[in-house]
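Form 7-S
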Amino acid sequence: MKRYILFVIISLNCLSIYAQQRNSHNLFWVRLTLADTLNSRLKWEVFLQKRTQNNYQGDPNVFHSNQFKSYWLWFHYSVNNKLKLSASPFGYFESYTLNNSNADADIPPIKEFRWAGRIEHETNGKYFNYSNRYNLEYRRRDLKNNDVYLPNWRIRYMVRLDKPIKNILSPTKTLIFTAYNEVFIQFGKAVRDNPNVFDQNRIYLGASYELIKNIKLNLGYIYGFQERNSGKEFDNINTYWAVLTLDNFISQLKKK
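Output:
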């Protein structure tokens, strides 16, 4: 099974080479994560996210225009120290087109409501921690900005490696280096007439570190490519990623 998944990932990465047209984009993605535990096994998280982008190929300003914003609630249940089940009862998103010219910045965003489920399994190895993550998303999107929300499904598979290293920045804290690859496949009514089933692929390299107690910073880079509805055009995307996580968000306030 793992060999099959690896073959699919490599095959999808090769698709970008044969696309008739490839557009280049630079993005900045920032996320504020608020998180806390409900009990020893159950945890909640809220993602407040925003992405900005340049306005045309070669534009160096990654803050030129909006590209995405969202509000996303998750609950995570730890079955044991290796297996985690997660569910999102609500997510709201606004996605702007990936700009190829200044005029594209005036196109209104696509509004979306999303529900999702996730299974994540992690294995702690001698040198790396290895995990597989499987997501199933149900999306309803106003694709034509006419208040008609069309449904579709999306499957996401991620393979991830984490390398914790101690005694680099602090004798008591751990710096974690991360690399992952995530593939997105879509199907359903909203995309039924599109020639593409493959949606996008993201390859990530980054690191995370706890700045002070319960406040963690994650910095990274994502190379992604996304297939447009025509099936003949790809967007190559360079994304600079920053995440600030506030753990025990409410518990700390209660203690004070």
